[in-house]
Design goal:
Number of helices: 12
CATH class of the domain at 10-200 and 266-288: Alpha Beta
Number of strands: 9
Strand order of the largest sheet: 7-6-5-4-3-9-8
Strand content: 5-15%
CATH architecture of the domain at 10-200 and 266-288: Alpha-Beta Barrel
Structural class: alpha/beta
CATH topology of the domain at 10-200 and 266-288: TIM Barrel
Largest sheet: 7 strands, parallel
Distance between the termini: 49 Å
Helix content: 40-55%
Length: 318
């Protein structure tokens, strides 16, 4: 039975009031490496035409050029800033000794520089791109809180932090009275809103790659992504991709849509950040909205039996 066409869903980012499109777009690799402002405008407009309101960037993407391209493209498109959710990430800002990490100096200066490149007064979400074990967590928490207080960002989050690191940061915020004690019982049940990136594993889950075939117009053909290709195009990964392909065929959807739908169907994921260099790829990715209802628990279990990525609870002992 054919599933009726779906419309873009907007999810709250965790339990905050911020609503982000279930599918979003990220500038990693594409802006500045493969796309200029003209191309970016067509890609961004195609995303908006499909209901996307969330666009992701980072200071390190194309050494800052990705932020410049996104900002200029949005300005030329004449979009209302309030209609958009823009995020960027701070960690790798340049070659200098204070241009990297999560010190107060780099968080403040990096955020200002990102806003200048984006030509925006604020971002909606500012991420700590990686944990910084060389900076005291209290310094990072205070600096991010300062950024929020200044209105340069409305929310802050983390990227690839461990559960322990997130918990430690929360404990510091509580100790410093950056969280009102009256609401602590509510925050104890606060849910993380995940914005997952690279749902197609840089194209591996489209099925277009094999160990001896790298299309010349793909990101793995770029000189600065050869190492990523070597890590991704390994026999175990390709075997799993080939194993999932029959499930996609059975459901009547492309493998790429099945992969994105698998991410989006996770109730803990607020938005899946997709990437594309062509409008046709955007259009194909956005059709995933119609594939999400096909991922029943039985289908998800079939996929899990092949990819084996489901976290396992640790054994408990009496």
């Amino acid at each position: 039975m054919k599933i009726p066409d779906q419309v873009m869903q907007y999810n709250k980012l965790g339990k905050s009031g911020l609503k982000v499109s279930q599918l979003s777009y990220g500038a990693w690799v594409t802006f500045g490496n493969q796309l200029d402002v003209k191309d970016a405008k067509s890609i961004l407009q195609c995303c908006r035409d499909h209901g996307v309101n969330f666009f992701d960037n980072a200071e390190v993407y194309a050494n800052g050029r990705a932020e410049e391209i996104m900002g200029q493209a949005i300005k030329e498109l004449g979009w209302k800033r309030t209609d958009l959710v823009i995020s960027t990430k701070i960690f790798w800002g340049g070659p200098g000794p204070n241009d990297k990490g999560l010190s107060r100096k780099h968080i403040v200066e990096g955020t200002k520089n990102s806003l200048k490149r984006l030509d925006m007064e604020y971002v909606d979400v500012l991420y700590c791109h990686r944990p910084d074990i060389g900076t005291p967590i209290e310094e990072t928490v205070r600096a991010m809180n300062h950024v929020i207080d200044k209105g340069w960002a409305y929310y802050w989050g983390t990227s690839e932090w461990s559960a322990q690191q997130i918990t430690e940061a929360w404990g510091v915020a509580e100790r410093l009275d950056l969280v009102e004690s009256e609401y602590l019982p509510l925050y104890a049940n606060y849910g993380l809103g995940l914005t997952t990136w690279s749902p197609l594993a840089s194209g591996v889950l489209t099925g277009k790659y094999n160990s001896g075939n790298i299309p010349p117009d793909s990101r793995f053909a770029l000189d600065n992504y050869k190492n990523l290709a070597n890590r991704s195009l390994v026999d175990d990964v390709l075997r799993k991709v080939n194993g999932v392909k029959p499930i996609a065929d059975e459901l009547g959807v492309p493998l790429s849509q099945l992969a994105i739908a698998w991410c989006a169907s996770n109730p803990n994921i607020s938005s899946v950040i997709t990437g594309a260099t062509k409008e046709a790829q955007i259009q194909e990715n956005m059709k995933t909205i119609n594939a999400i209802p096909l991922l029943t628990p039985a289908v998800v279990e079939k996929i899990e039996a092949i990819v084996q990525t489901k976290p396992k609870r640790p054994d408990s002992y009496r």
